[in-house]
Every structure is written in C-alpha cells, then in structure tokens.
Known about the structure:
The chain has helices at 31-44, 61-72, 114-118, 122-125; strands spanning 5-11, 23-29, 49-54, 86-91, 101-107, 131-136, 150-155. By secondary structure, the protein is α/β, with parallel strands linked by helices. The longest helix is centred in the N-terminal third of the chain and has 14 residues, at 31-44. It is globular.
Amino acid sequence: MVNKATIYIVNTESAELGSKKNFMKTLQTDITKVEKLTEQISKKIRGGEVFGLVGNLGSGKTTFTQSLAKKLGVKQHVTSPTFTLMQQYQFLNKQLHKLPLYFYHLDLYRTQSFQEVTALGVTQIWEHPQTVTIIEWADKFQKNLPANTTLIIFKDNDGTNKD
C-alpha cells in the first residue's frame, strides 16, 4: 500500500525518462489522492490510451492500476500479472461506446527481452480504440513503447524510483 510518494506524469513523444522539462504534472500523494487522480484520468479515457508505470517495488503501480480499473468500471479484482505477464479485463464505458472496452494490465518485471513482450501480442492492442493498456515496469522497454504513451513515474519520498 502506498503511504506517500511523488508521481510524475510525462508524455513520451518528446521526453526521455527523467527529463523534468517535459513533465506535465507533478504531485506528492497518498492513496486517497491516487484515487482522485485516477478519477480524473478515467474521465478522459476515450480508448487507445497507453500508460507506462515506472517505480520501485511497492511504490504504488499496482494500487494505481487497481484504482483506475475500478474507476473505469472493471468489475473483477485486478491483481498484478507478475507471472502471467498480462491480464485482460472487459468494461463498458457507457459515455463512449455501446461496445465493450478492454483493460490490459502488463507487468514486465520478469521479462528479459522485448521479444517476450511482443510474443504476448501487445503491439496489436496498443493504441487500439477499444483498449486501455497499463504497463508496469515500462522503463525496461521505454524505447519500444508507442509514441503516445503517458509515463507515470512513482518516486519514493527520498526521490528515487530504483528497484
């Protein structure tokens, strides 16, 4: 559970990981503020979004993902797919579509190569208009992420995001 962390949100189209000049939003937060943040983000979801989460073990990546999934209307309990690498959940965004949308949750902690990631078929789902994709440990393959990926960087109070 996240007690206190700093979250940076950055668009990867024009940013290198860690480049503060391109940060869109910075906030120091606890779990209640994470829920407010995911509420704001969920209202902007249109389909095709990719979010890359970066931070240490226990920094709040899965908590953020669970909160966003809940705000979007995912009914199942979302857990980190550490061993399966990817989970798919269906939800209905009544404001936008009568068709279901799909929430993909990836955990790349145990992956060794981008080839393992592509074997999951993720490049076909990234940016698809009926998907929302969350990638934990996105920094492992940042150069391979879609251009419109929004990075969300979780840093501990000491300012680190190391493993």
